[in-house]
Amino acid sequence: MFGKLSYVISFVLVLGLYCDASALVVKSGETITYDSRTRIPDGNTVVEAGGTLIFKARLDFDGGDELHVYGTVISEDTCKFPDSSGYQGVKAFIYNGGLWDAQDIENRAGGEEADGGGRGDWIKLFLGSTLIVRTRYGDGHQFYDPSFWIEDGSLLPGEDGEVISFEVLDDGAVTITNGQPRAMPLARSPDPDDGAMHLDTWINLSWKAGDFAVSHDIYLGETYDDVNNAAPDSDIFRGNQTTTFYVAGFPGFAYPEGLVPGTTYYWRVDEINDADPNSPWKGDVWSFSIVPYTAYNPEPIDNAEFVGPDNVTLSWTPGFGAKLHTIYLGDDYDEVNNATGGMVQGDSTYSPGPLEREKVYYWRVDEFDAVTTHKGDVWTFTTPGAVGHPQPSNASTDVAMDAVLSWTPSDRAASHELYVGTDQDTVRYADTGSPEYKGSRALGIENYDPGLLEAETSYYWRVDEVDAQGNTIKGPIWIFTTGAFLVVDDFESYTDDDAAGEAIWQTWIDGFGVADNGAQVGYLVPPYCEQTIVHSGAQSMPLLYTNEAGVTNSEGVLPVTASPDWTTAGVGVLSLWFRGDSANAAEPLYVAVSNSAGSPALASYDDPSAATVRSWVQWRIPLQAFADQGINLTNVDRLAIGLGSKGGAATGGTGTLFIDDIRLYRP
Q1: Cβ-Cβ contacts under 8 Å for 27 (sequence gap 6 or more)
Q2: H or E element, residue 266
Q3: Per-residue confidence at 10, pLDDT binned at 50, 70, 90?
Q4: Phi, psi at 67, each rounded to 5°
Q5: How many Å apart are CA 473 and CA 663, to the nearest integer?
Q6: Distance from C-alpha of 120 to C-alpha of 149, rounded to nearest angstrom
Q7: Within 10 A of 255 (CB to CB), how many other CB atoms are there?
């Protein structure tokens, strides 16, 4: 049995840090963006139809990797396909409807830049796919002439200096379009990558110059706002120069006494060309952090659940200059936080032996750099059977102001004691006499409605479990941060249990049994909600419409019961996300809002072909538009979303529109 508190010191000889990205699948309706240089080391990258993958900096593939594009890929910097074996096989596949819009492509075989001679065969386009290469010779952008294959034909690059868009049409024809390069006037491709952790107290910053730059204004400081707002007369302006690198942390340069461990630095490069009226081009603000003196990157991560209880190994990344490490582990936060003393061990991992189930554990690592001991943060994890699975999930951001808290009880819980507040330590030390105490909840009631929360505020909460003998097991501290919106429907609460009344079509009213309404909400068989094409979360609403045989309109109607006051918290905008398909009939899209009596107020989307759009689109409607039509916004009764003649001139037809994240925002 593990004791309540133990500690150990370990010795490290090597300090290392490596951060990388893994191969991934971008699902339909999902957008993933990489702001810094990314290398995908193993496996294939797949972008599903309706998915979008954006690389704002350089993208590197290892030998043997493949890129499969059914959706959209936008690479705004160089994309390299190396092959350490010296043979370059097919590496990228673009399938029907797929689009790859590339700024640069480099083919490297055997470590050398290939000219395509016998080494092509590395990008293959299928019918209906599109490749756009925005590149040019002699200006820092290189395209090393691979060959392109389509079904039943070949496609060759154009002449030097051309920018070529390759498009394979549905009938197999090929069109080649010459055009101008996409201008990139801003500094880009920072090195180190934006947000990187740096292992030394000096640094060489470098970047790729903007297309029109003659010189560069450099800004470097310790706060984002200072760097973002800085001008050449500010203290953090580091000068104008023609070179694309800048050194800091040495005598004679910025921060001559060295960069400080544990500090995040921000930098910006503005591109200058006095002969161009658009100059200067203000750059993005990038950042890097110097490794702290304290241990970081704990494994298991802070607030991890279901750890162990057997064969547990704790590990961490050593702090700057660390030589010795003291580990403290126990089930009482204060004891771990205040512990001193220890003994020496040989490395930066620790195996505590078997742990107890249904426990909250705390641990801390102090670092000794041969001069000073640096006290570490207290991290926590739980073992199986403990209270967990908080909703909103721990460290969530952009949470609705009307969120309801929920959790999973511990195995032996008979009841729960709940604490909520805006200060971490206050919530940690609160008891049943504190204002943060929100009362006892019986087993089976693992939820709590805190009422309307403040916008853009961090909340801390804790659930203590009380067993049948009256013993209280103190829970971990969880955190979430609110956004500035209320949820009308995010479609996450619906299930396939229609016997319990939880199916989406048991809340949303569609055209079933209604002669002049061609709508069907949800699918006929489970899963009733769409679980692949989603904007966020795990589900969206499929709205099937059939405006035929005399039916000119299809709409789904939501009775607004939970939050009928659409003036609460200063909200003034109704927002929803929708996504259609090119196969849909181009019926007009509209939203209608009603009170319990009187006519509904309508808002029509300004693009009558919205239902044919294959990407997620946000529609924001000022609530004043409904108020101007006589709607009492303090007591909204129904919300309808439809397609057809109510929204404008309709031609008839069928299709499926997906709806997600219906919210009320502040203006």
Answers
A1: 48, 51, 532
A2: strand 264-272
A3: very low
A4: -115, 120
A5: 37
A6: 10
A7: 18
Segment holding 268, helix H or strand E: strand 264-272
Dump pLDDT digits (tens) for 356-372.
999 999 999 999 999 99
Give all strands (DSSP E) within 454-559, no chain letters: 458-466, 472-473, 478-482, 485-489, 519-521, 541-547, 553-559
Residue 180 has pLDDT above 60, yes or no: no
293-382 belongs to which CATH class? mainly beta
The mean-pLDDT minimum among 346-355, 538-547, 632-641 falls in 346-355
Taking Cα atoms as reference points, which of 72, 71, 73, 14 lies closest to residue 38?
73
Give the span between the Cα atoms of 521 and 541, in whole angstroms. 7
Is residue 608 packed enough to be buried (19+ CB in 10 Å), middle (13-18) or exposed (0-12)? middle
Residue 577, strand partner residues: 618, 660
The CATH number of the domain covering residues in 388-483:
2.60.40.10
Considering only CA atoms, which of 297, 161, 267 is closest in space to residue 205?
A: 267
pLDDT at 308 over 50: yes
Residue 146 has pLDDT above 80, yes or no: no
pTM of the model: 0.72
Arithmetic mean of pLDDT over the chain: 84
Helix and strand counts by DSSP (H, E) for the chain? 4, 53
Residue 241: band (very low, low, confident or very high) from pLDDT cuts 50, 70, 90? very high
Assess contact for 421 and 430: CB atoms under 8 A: yes
pLDDT beyond 90 at 37 = no
What are the start-end ranges of the E strands in 301-400? Answer: 314-317, 324-330, 344-345, 349-350, 360-368, 373-374, 378-382, 388-391, 396-399
Q: What is the CATH class of 188-290?
A: mainly beta
Residue 19 has pLDDT above 80, yes or no: no
In the prediction, which pLDDT does 437 show? 98
Residue 212: count other Cβ atoms within 10 Å of its Cβ.
17
Q: What are the residue ranges of CATH 2.60.120.260 in the chain?
A: 488-665
Alpha carbon of 570 to those of 187, 422, 458, 559, 662: distances in Å?
Answer: 40, 21, 19, 22, 17
**Numbered ranges of CATH 2.60.40.10 in the chain:** 188-290, 293-382, 388-483
Retrieve residue 540's tokens. Answer: 């969206």
Task: Choose the CATH number for 488-665 among 3.40.50.1980, 3.40.30.10, 3.40.50.2300, 2.60.120.260.
Answer: 2.60.120.260
Strands (E), 392-456: 396-399, 405-408, 415-421, 437-442, 447-448
Question: For residue 58, is pLDDT > 70?
Answer: no
562: alpha, beta or left? (left if phi > 0; alpha if psi -120 to 50): alpha
Q: Give residues with Cβ within 8 angstroms of 561, minimum separation 6.
A: none
Strands 458-466 and 617-622: unpaired
Q: Are 586 and 609 in contact (CB under 8 A)?
A: yes
310-315 average pLDDT score:
96
User: Quick one: which of 598, 595, 602, 591 has its CA closest to 638?
Assistant: 595
In the chain, what percentage of residues exceed pLDDT 70?
Answer: 79
Q: Report, as an integer, the average pLDDT of 621-644.
A: 97
Tokens in use for 140?
A: 């820092």
